[in-house]
Structures are given as C-alpha cells and as structure tokens.
Write a structure and sequence with these properties.
232 residues, alpha+beta, DNA primase, PRIM domain, six-stranded mixed β-sheet, 16% strand
C-alpha cells in the first residue's frame, strides 16, 4: 500500500512479510473512519490477522475453520456441536459464527497469552479429537484429494499472517451474506449461512447484542486444557 495516498488520520504499521521478503505498510482498522475508508476502496470483506500489531506473535484467539467440502451444512453444524462438547469437557469457552460463505468458524479466546506455535499445536490436537469422534464426516488432511469430500477441520489458520473473514464482515456472495456470531442454541439442522445478510444483520444486533464480545475477553488456559484433551 502506498502510504502517500492514505488520508490523514488513517493509521498504518510497517511489518515484515517473510513471504514477500520485505516490509509492508498494513492498515490498522481500529475506528469507524478507517473502516469507511476501506469500504470506499472496495474492500467488501475484512480479513484480519489473529493478532494485533502491538503483539504480532501472540494471537488473541484460536480458530477452527469447518469447511463443508461436499457435505451438507447440517453435518457442519454437527461437527461444530461436537467441538463445543469437547471444549465443555476440557473446561474451555468457545464461540461459533457462520463464515458468511459455506462453513462455520469456532473460536477460543486466548488474550494473547501464547505464541502461534503453541496455539497451532493445541488446535491440531483438538482437531484430531474432533476427527476421532466424527471419522465418517470429517478430515484433518490439508490435501483436497486426501479429504475424500469430507468436512475439513482446518487448524492451520492458526499461523502468523493467516487471515479469515472477520465477524460481521460482509462476503461477496449471493444475497450479500454476513459472517454472523451465533448462540450455540441456534445451531439447528435448518440453519444456513444464507439466513444472515446485510438486510437483517442490524436488526439482529439490536435484538441479540454483540455475541462475539467474549472472544476478546478472558483467555482460556490452553496448557491446562491440553492435559485434559490428551486424556480424551
């Protein structure tokens, strides 16, 4: 990004990109004015890092991206509910949202207590336990051919520089769907990502409030949870 073209008041931060082998000026979207500026640039969806620029090596949350493959969305819902079941068993909070496209995202709040390697290791083990409970419909194989059209429990999103659609982000999809936080009780077989669009999200927020607030709250103790997880 050419910082000379950025209006006054919009913050950027130089961060080294290993893949590009150079420093890049990243936009810091932390207020409404910057969000409007990004929308004016044509940024339909917002895909942030898992960490903030002040603590780039310590993610604020862990993500499991449940990608349906060729499975029905009700099977993705089943996978998310099993994920919640496991998290309850090991005593950690988790939150769910639609991707706004075809899948679901499950987040665990971390409050930047751990580095990316620790978080990814924990996510890998959690994904493996999910797969063990649902071997017929899930896969943790990165290779599409090896997944055999099953739901991909993607734990590799927990790497520095990886991005994923933010909560409340509009997606460039039919109906202008929105990545929408959910109550766990809303995960029913009839639910679809197309239920939430730019036409109804504001009314939903007025009624339900910000269901995502807890993701940036108290971090879960994943080192303690890991010991419980390894016993499952």
């Amino acid at each position: 990004m050419d910082v000379k073209q950025i209006p006054e008041g919009v913050k950027t931060e130089k961060i080294y990109s290993a893949s590009n082998k150079k420093y890049i000026d990243y936009l810091i979207c932390n207020d409404a004015a910057t969000l409007i500026y990004m929308a004016n640039l044509g940024c339909i969806e917002i895909n942030p890092w898992n960490s903030v620029y002040m603590r780039p090596d310590n993610p604020d949350y862990m993500i499991l991206d449940l990608d349906p493959g060729d499975k029905a969305f009700k099977e993705v819902i089943k996978t998310a509910l099993v994920t919640k079941e496991i998290c309850d068993e090991i005593g950690v909070k988790c939150y769910c949202k639609t991707s706004g496209a075809t899948g679901l995202h499950v987040y665990l709040p971390l409050k930047a207590k751990y580095d990316y390697d620790q978080v990814r290791t924990f996510a890998n083990i959690l994904a493996s336990v999910i797969h063990d409970r649902l071997p017929d419909i899930t896969s943790i194989e990165r290779s599409v051919s090896k997944r055999k059209k099953k739901i991909y429990v993607d734990f590799l999103q927990n790497s520095k520089g990886q991005t994923i659609a933010a909560p409340y982000s509009v997606r460039p999809r039919p109906l202008a769907t929105v990545s929408t936080p959910l109550k766990w009780s809303e995960l029913k077989d009839y639910l679809t990502p197309q239920d939430f669009t730019i036409h109804n999200i504001l009314k939903r927020l007025d009624k339900a409030g910000d269901l995502w607030k807890g993701v940036l709250g108290t971090g879960v103790p994943i080192l303690k949870a890991l010991k419980k997880l390894e016993k499952l």
